[in-house]
Amino acid sequence: MPPNAAAALQNASLVGQNKTAVVVGGTRGIGGAVARLLAKLGCSRIIILGRGEKQGKDAVEILKNRAPKGGKVEAEFVQGDLSDNKGMRSAAIALQAAAGDAVIDYLILCQNGSPAGLNIKYNAEGHDTAFAIQGISRFSIAYLLTTRGGLASNAMVMSICNQGQSLDDLSVDDLSLKNRLEARPSGPALFMQQSKRDCTVIDSCFEELNTRYPQYRYYSLFPGLVKTEEFDPSFAPGYLKWVMWLGIRLIATTPDQYANFPVYILASPEAQRTLGSGKYFDRRLNPTPLGKWASDSKNRQALWEKMAEIIGEK
Ligand SMILES: NC(=O)c1ccc[n+]([C@@H]2O[C@H](COP(=O)([O-])OP(=O)(O)OC[C@H]3O[C@@H](n4cnc5c(N)ncnc54)[C@H](OP(=O)(O)O)[C@@H]3O)[C@@H](O)[C@H]2O)c1
């Protein structure tokens, strides 16, 4: 049975534990809510990253004011754009400089690069920009902070995005799905493939990170539908915008409601006991398996090599 995360967090506190959290995409949406809940529990340092300066600075003030009685929250905004390699690398360096070496206890990745359907824009390296933000930057930031000594011992890294879907015929040589465009897919069909691609890549990278760096824990969580401040279903093509429009009205949670689930894993003393060694979860913290493509270790290794090449680490 999934845990009652919100109830369990009533008894949790991070006051006096000297924890440092980095929330990428933490200026609003799900990441903003995760940062606020960590502040409310007394996480002593919270660093958030996004592009918008005003939004970032406003969010920092809110975090400082959320500190519980007897606790103090130091909050900082780091401006960064994860659309291309240069931006990802600069962001990783700036985050480590802001946090200090080997002190990040929680690295939470919430940056949003929703699938673009047919409206693909390509970044400086020729990759689908939405995929660069959603998939490549999750690998890049996690990898760079892991291998450059950014993480504290026993650190937890968490992606909040899609989980468990599989693009079964994914080719590591066509991660931006350019070949599929030649078959003139419909907007909704391509959108679904991009969504599965993002998920397949994130799942595979996180499974490899767990295998290669067992001293840390790399989690991947699917949030379900969350009605964030700027959620606008019209980003989805064709009939999918109506499916989302309805879903948002019928089943969506708010960012603050949803934040209980990731923060339960990070901060509740009972999480390890109730969740065991599982790393991949659905919107209510039911464990979820890897998708078919990501379950194949040969696929994952080929992808790892490709991703290292893409981010200039090979
Ligand atoms: N909300 C949902 O229902 C839902 C459902 C399934 C999956 N997800 C996934 O969950 C994650 C969080 O979604 P959300 O709804 O919380 O998104 P959101 O409300 O749009 O917030 C996204 C955050 O990412 C930052 N961001 C966007 N582009 C960026 C860039 N190029 N570089 C750096 N930061 C960037 C934003 O700040 P700036 O704009 O200032 O840069 C903001 O802080 C996303 O990966 C999303 O696809 C969400």
From TrEMBL:
Domain of life the protein comes from: Eukaryota
Keywords linked to the UniProt accession: Oxidoreductase
- Please identify the protein, giving its name as recorded: NAD(P)-binding protein
Q: Which InterPro entries match?
A: NAD(P)-bd_dom_sf, SDR_fam, Sec_Metab_Biosynth_Oxidored
> Which species does this protein come from?
Mycena albidolilacea
Q: Which GO terms describe its molecular function?
A: oxidoreductase activity
Q: Which Pfam families match?
A: adh_short (PF00106)
Q: Does the keyword Ion transport apply?
A: no
